[in-house]
Amino acid sequence: MTRKVFTKLLGLFVLLLVFHTAVMEIVFRQFMHSSSGATLPRLGREAILSGLIALVVALPVAAWAAIRIMNRLEHVVTFARRIADGDLSARLDQTSHDELSAMEAALNQTAERLGQSFAEIESRRQELAAMLDSMQEAVVAVTAEGQVAWSNAVMQRMAGTQIRVGRPLAHSVRDPDLLACVKVALEQGAVRSGRASTLAPGRTFDVSAAPLPAGGALAVLHDVTRIEIAERSRRDFIANVSHELRTPLTSIQGYVETLMEDSGSSPETTREFLSIIQKSARRMNRLTEDLLALAGVESPDYKLARQPIRASALVEDATESLGGIIADSGMDLEPAGAPDALVLADPDALNQVFGNLIENATKYGSAGKRIRLGAHLLEHHVEFFVQDFGPGIPSEHLGRIFERFYRVDKARSRESGGTGLGLAIVKHIVQAHGGSVRAESDLGAGSTFFFTLPLAPIPA
């Protein structure tokens, strides 16, 4: 481009000089026409010679001016290319005060404003990216062609290395509900909602896909796994409570109606029926008490009066207060020792834990005729245990026995008067102490229930 400018300028300058020479020749011929003919050739030659001398002098000047303009235009072209390549720090040097300098100043000002605008846009982009990355929801944007344009950190963690900018969304995630929502947003320009359940194992997401003004679509995934679990747990809880209450209520209602209709029944029959009614009422009372206890330990307002207490003292208190229950069941208590280490515990709450575990052992481990109770010291905790020597628990049940209303042998549990809430109460109390609970079992050799309590801090 600059070479063309140089050539045009130089050619224009030469044409002007030739035109000047021609004009001078015409003027001199007209002038000499009125003069003597002897001087005409001489004057013509002088005119031509003067024009040639002017041309020889003007050519270097024109070349110098054209080269200077060409160099400045080359700087402008280089500047424009740097701006086009994204180098907004490029500037033109202003060395004079002509029209080109005014253009250079305007271009420098334009570059500076562009730099400020891009810096502001980049700052806002980073702020938006930080906000989207801090969201708990997974967010992914796709182009009009269905390719990934952007995704936040939650989506990247969930999809892993499969999701990349420029890759089709259908190749990054395989959930049909998510892809269907995005397809509707892209093709119909409408907001579409759905539920994805195959993006991550065991997790459920509410999906909302909406079209973007400039084309493409944005999908937001909200994790509703906990809500689903809570809702399922609520339904199961209501169903279990209804079932547990229906059995004794039906029994009470049936025997009461029988007594009312048969006024001539013998005292022995009446006593037998009343005994059954009393047993059902006690079962309902026990269920109500366990439900209230479970509601209490699950409540956010549940408070523990934790204090430093020796682990051996907790075991001794449990042995003294619950020894009668063990004796009434015809079993023997076998102390297994406990360390004197201090733990942070609420004695009343721990008495309930030991009570539920020992009662559980007397009901389901009575065949072993004995119960072991003790504790041992770990690095940061003391682990307590209650062991029976009954039939044991199949391994497939060990992971669920601390769930509410879960029973290994439902028929036997109802015969023994169990509510299915005792181990759930144990779990919540221990976790409220900052500990954990687990169970081990060998079929035919009995079961052992463990729970841990954190060691009390050593006073400075």
Can you describe this structure?
It is a single chain. The protein has 460 residues and is an alpha+beta fold. The protein folds into four domains: 2-87; 135-223, Beta-Lactamase (2-Layer Sandwich), CATH 3.30.450; 229-298, Signal transduction histidine kinase, dimerisation/phosphotransfer (DHp) domain (Helix Hairpins); 307-454, Histidine kinase-like ATPase, C-terminal domain (Heat Shock Protein 90, 2-Layer Sandwich), CATH 3.30.565. Helices cover 56% and strands 15% of the residues. The chain has helices at residues 2-33, 40-84, 99-134, 153-159, 169-172, 176-188, 225-261, 267-298, 311-328, 347-364, 410-415, 422-432, and strands at residues 138-142, 148-151, 192-196, 205-211, 217-223, 307-310, 332-335, 342-345, 370-377, 381-388, 437-442, 446-454. Strands 2-1-5-4-3 form a five-stranded antiparallel sheet. Strands 7-9-10-12-11 form a five-stranded mixed sheet. Strands 6-8 form a two-stranded antiparallel ribbon. A hairpin with a 3-residue loop joins strand 9 (370-377) and strand 10. The radius of gyration is 48 Å and the shape is elongated. The chain starts with a helix and ends in a 6-residue tail after the last strand.
